[in-house]
Amino acid sequence: MRLLRLLRVLKQLKRLDAVQKMVQTISSLVTASRDILTLLGVVVFFFSALSVQLWGGVLLASRPELEGAEYREKHLSVLNFNDFGMAFGTWVVSLLCEYIPALADAVARASSLPGSWLVLVVFYVFGVSIVFELVKAFTIEVFVTLSQSWGKPRKEFRTLESVIEEFERRSLCLHYRIVGDVTTHEKIAQALAEMDEELDEEQEERSRLEHGGQEEEQERSGPGHGHEQGGAAGRAAGG
């Protein structure tokens, strides 16, 4: 019953503008960053699979090679590569925290592969210092772009505006929502608006040229037409 009450609270929170803005921002960030997040996931997946093959079952607190190591003294045995899940979690900790020298020291002590601890350094340089920093920079850029549009009227397609006006004329209301990246929708709307402006300018220029050509034809035909009328009147008088 208490869980059902919690669901009722969540249902009420959905009506708050701040909560709706937060959910929309998070979904837009994830949607816009899916490519760079996919790259980060591939990197972590690769190193997780590699570390299980290299050090699976190596980092155990009971191993005598780890006697006196900082890895055992700080009780870091939860950071190991005994299976894929634990390896994945260890790399995520390295992403979110920092380089862990005690882990590299434990691998160097317990592993039978000399120099294999350098994989940890490679991951920190490539995965953390490059890929993860790109993820953070791209996410911040998208967030700044979204925050600039807060409180401003959303750009819509001209066709959609005409549909909304037609619904309002019939005393109806059109309910819709944007699926996917909101920034992409705004860019498409802006590009289409610019194309509409260019088409309007071309039509105005074409109509202006046509109107100018008609005026020139009228000016050319005016004196000749008057001369013909004068000649016809003279012939009628002479007759």
From TrEMBL:
It holds the Pfam family Ion_trans. InterPro entries: Ion_trans_dom (IPR005821), TPC1_plant (IPR044581). Residues 1-148 form the Ion transport domain. It is a multi-pass membrane protein. Residues 205-228 have a biased composition (Basic and acidic residues). Its main location: membrane. Residues 195-204 have a biased composition (Acidic residues). The keyword Cell wall biogenesis/degradation does not apply. GO terms for molecular function: voltage-gated calcium channel activity. Residues 229-239 have a biased composition (Gly residues). It is found in: Membrane. Residues 195-239 are annotated as: Disordered. The chain crosses the membrane at residues 36-60, 81-104, 116-135. Keywords: Calcium, Ion channel, Ion transport, Membrane, Repeat, Transmembrane, Transmembrane helix, Transport. GO terms for cellular component: membrane. This is Ion transport domain-containing protein. It comes from Alexandrium catenella (Red tide dinoflagellate). The lineage of its organism: Eukaryota, Sar, Alveolata, Dinophyceae, Gonyaulacales.
